Amino acid sequence: MNALPSFSIDTASMPVEARFHSWAAMIPYFEVERPPGADDFLLRAKAWLLEGIVLSVNAMPPVTLERTATAAAADGRTDFVVVLSPDSAWRARGEGARMVEPGVVCVLDNSRPYRVETNGGEFIILNVSRALLDDPRLPFDLHAQLFRNALAFVFADFLVALCRRLPSVMQSEAPALTRALRDLLVACLAAGHEAMWQKPDDATVLHRARRYIDRHLAQALTVADVARAMGVSRTHLYRIFRDVGGVERFVMRQRLARAHALLATATDRRRSVAEIAAATGFASLAHFSRLFRAQFGVTPTQMRAGSRLGVTLPAAEFVTEESRLLQSWVQPVGGLPQ
């Protein structure tokens, strides 16, 4: 029987001058910094591949990682990052700064910019495919959210125990383990948000409405169209979309996200920017270009010119076999072609 796919790194086995740069080469989608004056970088990490999840345990020194708006716009990753440090406090900066206490679960969205500042310690990190968290019980916006409910602490304890047992898990057990991990994660994330709905059915209506909108982005959607399809009044629809920015704003975000994905995908290179704008419901190319730049910081033409726009590639001498293996795992989890 085969064990789960895994690898480990220990920078202590590398030349001192290569330690930090070799680790940074493993995560080219971040800008990374050491504290001023730091001249060494001792890190140990072990990673495993499940189905739609990459799980890693990292013992790291103080470091700052930043997912810039340019990188988020350029590389098109859509996965979530679930972070738990059992023993260290750290800071997450999304649209605001959050101090994350030891044992608290934090979720970050790789499609959006953020910054992580640590003083070192042990970090359990899950890269989770967006499809795995497509669940009507979850809030629309998970980015930079902290979870301190009872189920979140159960999930944290489960993660710590799981990391001890993963070396003995067989690949044939990965599907069942992924389901258990995903179900407990969803329960953890949903538990703190049940009170936001005035009716139990509102979460289901929102989920169905989001799916309907995603299927009809090429059309001239109106609030009345969506309300009619859901069998609810426009007033009801406005109310359940209120906490996610409103119906019209949600539709616009989805149009722009779909256009971004198409522009970043090599298989769609034969379609012009104007064709992609029309396919995502924009009647005016100029209007589309203006909104796209405001959302992602680059124009659609710049996006088309190179999906790595503004992202610094690591120097070849620091790219290890482990780095290549990790990229082959996280790219499909992040919604990117290998």
Quick gist of this model?
With 338 residues, the protein is of the alpha+beta class.
Number of strands: 12
- Give the helix tally: 12
CATH architecture of the largest domain: Sandwich
Low-confidence stretches: none
Strand content: 15-25%
Shape: globular
What is the averaged pLDDT score?
86
* CATH structural class of the largest domain: Mainly Beta
CATH fold naming of the largest domain: Jelly Rolls
SSE series: EHEEEEHEEEEEEEHHHHHHHHHH
Fourth CATH level, the homologous superfamily of the largest domain: Jelly Rolls
> What is the domain total for the residues?
2
Q: What spatial order of strands do you see in the largest sheet? A: 1-3-4-11-6-9-12
Taking all Cα atoms into account, the compactness measure Rg is: 21 Å
How would you classify the helix and strand content by structural class? alpha+beta
Helix content class: 40-55%
Give the terminus-to-terminus CA distance.
27 Å
Biggest sheet character:
7 strands, antiparallel
Write up this protein.
The protein has twelve helices and twelve strands. It is α+β, with helices and mostly antiparallel strands and 338 residues long. It folds into two domains: 6-193 and 311-333, Jelly Rolls; 202-305, Orthogonal Bundle (Arc Repressor Mutant, subunit A). Helix 1 (16-26) packs parallel to helix 12 (321-333), helix 3 (150-165) packs antiparallel against helix 4 and helix 6 (223-230) crosses helix 7 (234-241). The chain starts with 5 loop residues before the first strand and ends in a 5-residue tail after the last helix.
